[in-house]
Specification:
This protein is of the alpha+beta class. It has two domains: 4-145, Ribosomal Protein S5, domain 2 (2-Layer Sandwich); 150-242, GHMP kinase, C-terminal domain (Alpha-Beta Plaits). Helices cover 24% and strands 30% of the residues. The chain is globular, with a radius of gyration of 17 Å.
């Protein structure tokens, strides 16, 4: 097997409304998501095994069968030696694990975005890429016209657990977020330190910072001179066309 390189772009959730809950506990959403030019790189070769280089701060990344890459390989009935150059921070709400899984699916020629949700709610969008309205529990991906945008991100070195945020959202009585994201109040309750990073980005740019998904990345539209907060530099990204994610 010839070694192959696969680019896996991060996803950014620009808006998120929660519309209800299934009997199994999963939540129905109505979200706008975009692919951005922040990438992990997958290198696939003959054999088996799993290596992560450049792991970013955040939640620990499992390298056993619980990793989404290994789950994706099993899902498509393939094996490979996988090395990941990880530039997308884990636990940041940027879909790092999901886009890695989607990269494996694309490599295997798997194109069913609805079925891809069996691996994880964000895998469906990451498989499609571009810009889309995402509904259901994440498995329904409706492509939207491409809009070129530049955005400034501030990514705290704080991993935020998506299941914990949803659990807190339920416990809080299903609040509506006032900043385009219904999960923002719950994320701040789960991890109060996020507020400091929100305030830093808001103060520097003069725009209200918005939370990406369940957190912990904050973003504003537009580009600004790079700045650092508590040793972490802001990141400027651009949205990608769907064909850029294939």
């Amino acid at each position: 097997m010839k070694s192959e390189r696969i680019l896996c772009p991060a996803k950014l959730t620009l808006s998120l409304q929660i519309k209800g809950q299934r009997d199994d506990g999963f939540h129905f959403i109505d979200a706008e998501m975009v692919s951005i030019d922040l990438f992990d790189e997958l290198f696939l070769g003959a054999g088996s095994g799993f290596i992560i280089r450049g792991q970013k701060a955040g939640l620990d990344i499992p390298i056993d069968d619980n990793n989404l890459v290994n789950k994706a390989l099993a899902f498509v009935g393939k094996s490979a030696k996988v090395e990941i150059d990880k530039q997308i921070p884990a636990g940041a709400g940027l879909g790092g694990g999901s886009t890695n899984a989607a990269g494996i699916l694309r490599w295997a020629g798997f194109k069913d975005s609805v079925a891809a949700a069996e691996l994880g709610s964000d895998v469906s969008f990451c498989l499609a890429g571009g810009r889309a309205r995402v509904t259901g529990v994440g498995e329904l991906v409706e492509p939207l016209p491409y809009l070129e945008k530049e955005l400034t991100l501030l990514v705290p070195p704080i991993g935020v657990s998506t299941p914990r945020v949803y659990e807190e959202w339920d416990a809080m009585g299903s609040p509506k977020g006032g900043n385009g994201n219904d999960l923002e109040p719950a994320a701040l309750r789960v991890e109060p330190r996020l507020a400091d990073w929100r305030d830093a980005l808001t103060e520097f740019t003069g725009k209200p910072a918005r939370l990406a998904g369940s957190g912990g990345t904050w973003f504003v539209e537009g580009t600004y001179e790079k700045f650092a907060y508590r040793g972490v530099s802001s990141i400027t990204v651009r949205t990608l066309r769907p064909e850029s994610t294939i």
